[in-house]
Amino acid sequence: MVGDVHHDTVCSGRHCASCIPDNKQTNNINVPTRHPDLLGGGLPCLNVFVDNNLFRIRMERRRTMKTKELKFKFDLNCRWAIYVPSTMNVNEHIDNTKEVERVIGELSDLFGGATATPALGGWRCADGKVVTEQVTIVYAYCTTEQSVAHADEVVDIARRIAREYKQEAVTVEYNNQVAFVGAE
Fold first, then answer.
1. Total structural domains in the chain?
2. Which residue range is the domain that position 51 belongs to?
3. Mean pLDDT of 95-109
């Protein structure tokens, strides 16, 4: 805000001596003062001048909030993700909708549910060219026990995709760590 600035709606609208300091220096930050129009001495405010324009910031009193601890039946502390490509033979664009739905179903069978989100990915392939494509990241959250029990199956899904889509590798992510899984 520039120009005529008020504390808030309870301010009388006039700028009093306790709110506007006498020293209007450029980029001067003044110590908090109290506005006399507010009950109980008012809330502190901070006067800031930038290029001789007054900016008044009302300081809020900290309120103590009671928080409730969220309790879950399951501790879903692991995340698996498979990056479903939208290319075949490295750079031939295809519709990956059916494959995405298939992977959602497979991860849902393993972990109870899955979500897909689009992303733009790129990599340098074996022939030295940079390939970019729209990928779909299909991910699922699970417990540590589920993760250990089904890790091989997640990698097998990625291997199948790499084989069927003739990819050099398919990205698999586990708890923010990435591996590139080939067809073999």
1. 2
2. 1-62
3. 97
